[in-house]
Amino acid sequence: MENSAVLALYDRDMREGARPDGPGAHVERVGAVVRQTAPAHGWNGVVWSALEHADADAAIADQIAHFTGLGREFEWKLYGHDLPRDLGRRLVAAGFTPEPAETLMIGEAAGPALDALPPEGVRIVPVTDGAGVDLVAEVHEKAFGADASRFRRHLLDQLTASPDTVVAVVALAGAEPVSAARMELTPGARFAGLWGGGTVREWRGRGIYRALVAHRARIAADRGYRYLQVDASGQSRPILERLGFAALTTTTPYTYVPGRR
Question: CB of 90 within 8 A of CB of 259?
């Protein structure tokens, strides 16, 4: 895998050529910015930009006006190779708050990740209905310490309206949900996105996260996707590197909440 070529392909497929990620969402290009506008419980934000120094501040102001006019908080997803180089500073000056940076990691769907299996006593089951979504939300609240009500509604919308574009799974130890994750499958793209892999604290370090990656990788490969993409935390990155993923750049969410300034 030639990293710079794959990163350029990712930018074209998944950012500049982004597709809506759920029902009620739409993606549009406005000048040098590609943004998604979604219901309040969905993801709203900027996925790609190609800005010059001279037009960056005006483009930022335009996005603030668009989303605040809808009463939406939104995210500007800034990648380490985006221009201008001081775009992050400009976003902060405009009222955005940066969240912790993650690493964009890409792996081959048919690569070494396929071999991992869950530990004894743990099974991975598909999520297809509201009861399963409740289990995923329960894991996320325990694993990440954050309210999962918006995420629950968004995932249920995806599974109901476009089940072919999302795969959600939960790992059960007996009847107890101990880990969960999802995968987004954009029609026509070459990248399957791995999202939300979280394990409750007392079950970490047993290979469950690795098994969830492998499970989704097999599905992606079977459906013809060549690459897997993860926005990896510092905790996930070493595991993914051992599975053959390469770190291509960083990604930092900058969040704007109307009325916060």
Answer: no
Distance (Å, whole) CA 246 – CA 24: 33
Kindly report, residue by residue over 217-232, the tens digit of the pLDDT.
Answer: 999 999 999 999 999 9
Tokens of 179: 């880990």
- Rounded to the nearest angstrom, the gap between the alpha carbon of residue 17 and the centroid of all alpha carbons in its chain is 16
Return the number of other C-beta atoms located less than 10 Å from residue 165's C-beta. Answer: 17
Structural domains of the chain, ranges and CATH numbers in brackets:
3-102+251-256 (3.40.630), 110-225 (3.40.630.30)
Our measurement of the distance from residue 88's CA atom to the centroid of its chain's CA atoms, rounded to an integer in Å, reads 20
| Residue range 15-69, pLDDT digits in tens | 999 999 989 999 999 999 999 999 999 999 999 999 999 999 999 999 999 999 9
With beta carbons less than 8 A apart as the criterion, state whether 98 and 210 touch: no
Instruction: Give the burial string for 42-69 (b: 16+ CB within 10 Å, else e).
Output: bbbbbbbbebeeebbeebbeebbebbee
Q: 261 vs 2, 92, 147, CA distance in Å?
A: 43, 11, 23
User: Residue 1, exposed/middle/buried by CB under 10 A (0-12, 13-18, 19+)?
Assistant: middle
CA–CA gap between residue 245 and residue 234 (Å, rounded)? 14
Q: What angle do CA 16, 17, 20 make, to 5 degrees?
A: 115
> Which among 228, 184, 234, 217 is positioned nearest to 20, based on CA atoms?
184
CA nearest 42: which of 184, 192, 151, 148?
A: 151
